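User: Structure please.
Assistant: Input sequence and predicted structure:
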Amino acid sequence: MLNEVRVLGPCNIWLALFDATGTLIADPFLSYQGKMDQPSISDDGKTITCAIAIENVLVDLNRPCYRRYTPDDQQIDLAATLTRLGLSPSTVDTGFRFVPGMQEQIIFWGTSPSSSNNV
C-alpha cells in the first residue's frame, strides 16, 4: 500500500457508518478531499504505525505558477484541452501571439494623443 502513495496524489476520506445491528449502511459520505503528503512509518517492535498527512487542495494557492501567457506555453496543453472539448487536436489556436504586442501598447482613452486635454 505504501508503494501506491504519491506525494500530492489525490486522497479521499469516506465516512461509513453502521446501524444498530452492526450492518454497514450503504452510500458512505465523502468527508474530506485533499492531496497526500509524505507518509511516515514508526515501528517500536510491538506495533507498526503508518501515517499519511493530507493537505487541503487550497494549498496549491501557495505554490508558484511557472506558466506564462505565450504561444509556446499554450501549446503544452492545447491538444489535451481540444480533445476534452471534443475538437480536433490539430486545431490551431493563435490567440496568445498578440500578448507580447499588448504589453508595449499605449492606449489613449477618450481623446487623441495630440489633444490639449491630455494630462
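Helices lie at 71-84, 99-103.
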